[in-house]
Automatic annotation (TrEMBL):
InterPro entries found in the cross-reference section: Cyt_c-like_dom, Cyt_c-like_dom_sf
Domain (Cytochrome c) ranges: 18-123
GO molecular function ontology, one term from the record: electron transfer activity
Alphabetical keyword list: Heme, Iron, Metal-binding
Record-given protein name: Cytochrome C
């Protein structure tokens, strides 16, 4: 197994359901799939979480009927939020596709608190991602077109 994953196992194993800790937040972020979209290099490296890019957003657009969205820099999103404010936000926010908002709405409060502690532990917020674009606007970044293709015939 790669060094990344071996190192992560003791951290994750130490975090139990109901705990409020950054270690539990790391676990929740992996199981929740948050790194798949919000962490640069995660998919390309086979699931390695680079501390420099962890949840700092990815400037790759997702284009569809909603326009173009970018997986936000979550460090920047929480930088001015208290833990209480984050829990309230996470239970109620809306976002454009492909953000799986309902997964976050459904999280246990202790897991949301842990997620907050984990994001806060990641260090400098860094730069926000590009603003979402309305339908029809041409992105200035690489982007993925997400639209159904109907079968021929
Ligand atoms: C399939 C890709 C994808 C996955 C998986 C994903 N996100 Fe997102 N996320 C996005 C996109 C794209 C946006 C921006 C949506 C918009 O512009 O409205 C976003 C936005 C957000 C926002 C709003 C940020 C703000 O400042 O308004 C939060 C919070 C968030 N994601 C948290 C999470 C968490 C927590 C997880 C894991 C449980 C997660 N995301 C998994 C793609 C994803």
């Amino acid at each position: 197994m790669a060094a990344c994953c071996l190192a992560a196992i003791p951290v994750i194993a130490a975090a139990q359901s109901g705990d409020v800790s950054a270690a539990r937040g790391l676990y929740v972020s992996i199981i929740g799939g948050c790194h798949d979209c919000h962490t640069g290099g995660y998919n390309e490296s086979g699931g390695k979480i680079d501390p420099a890019t962890a949840l700092a957003g990815v400037p790759l657009g997702y284009s569809g009927p909603w326009g173009t969205s970018y997986a936000s820099n979550l460090r920047d999103s929480v930088k001015d939020m208290s833990e209480e404010e984050f829990v309230k936000f996470a239970k109620t926010f809306t976002a454009k596709p492909p953000m799986p908002v309902y997964n976050v709405h459904a999280m246990e409060e202790t897991d949301l608190r842990s997620l907050y502690l984990y994001i806060k532990s990641l260090g400098s917020p860094g730069a926000p991602m590009p603003e979402a674009l309305p339908p029809g606007a041409e992105p200035a970044t690489p982007y993925i077109v997400m639209e159904p293709v109907m079968p021929k015939g």
